[in-house]
Design goal:
6 helices, single chain, 184 residues, 33% strand, alpha/beta, Rossmann fold, EC 2.4.2.7
Length: 184
């Protein structure tokens, strides 16, 4: 990794795609982190090493649709834990609870199976990126509806200008991110 620390190393492998999906947007593409096996291992290890600590160790890992599935399932596997998917509405076949949240234009709904977590379980909630924070806050509410405790929200990237990390922390949820992108 040369002289870079882990965060800078990971940041150097995130691709910025200008004007996608709309003019003026700087899209932070994490797929290069996943394509290189060495970089992917550094990424996963950064999360695994944090959550191996007894004070932060969850009972289960929940991942948000869709890139949170990639990270969350591998982190859960490495920690020897189960994985719970939080899906977009209409994708889960069993009885669900749902939570609707606001987007920039309109709203979206996420769902969780009613037997996905047990009351009192400690859950790590993971996604790839924090923008407005709506998805993570909806995931937290779903898990809490079932009686679980979300011990921390985690993501690779924080886009603090969009206010999501501030909104999430205002709900009392601790947040851990590896890379922050300021500005457009």
């Amino acid at each position: 990794m040369n002289d870079l620390n882990v965060n800078d190393y990971l940041k150097s492998h995130i691709r910025t795609v200008p004007d996608w999906p709309a003019p003026g947007v700087q899209f932070r593409d994490i797929t290069p982190l996943l394509q290189d096996p060495r970089v992917f291992r550094v990424l996963i290890d950064a999360f695994v090493h944090r959550y191996m600590h007894p004070a932060l160790r969850p009972d289960v890992v929940a991942g948000l649709d869709a890139r949170g599935f990639i990270l969350g399932s591998v982190v859960a596997y490495e920690l020897g834990l189960g994985f719970v998917p939080i899906r977009k509405k209409g994708k889960l076949p069993f009885t669900t609870v749902e939570e609707t949240y606001e987007l920039e234009y309109g709203s979206a709904t996420v769902e969780l199976h009613t037997d996905a977590v047990k009351p009192g379980q400690r859950v790590l909630l993971i996604d790839d990126l924090i923008a407005t924070g709506g998805t993570m806050m909806a995931g937290k509410k779903l898990l809490e509806k079932l009686g679980a405790t979300v011990i921390e929200g985690a993501a690779i990237v924080d886009l603090p200008e969009l206010g999501g990390s501030e909104r999430i922390q205002a709900t009392g949820l601790k947040l851990f991110t590896l890379v922050s992108f300021e500005g457009h």
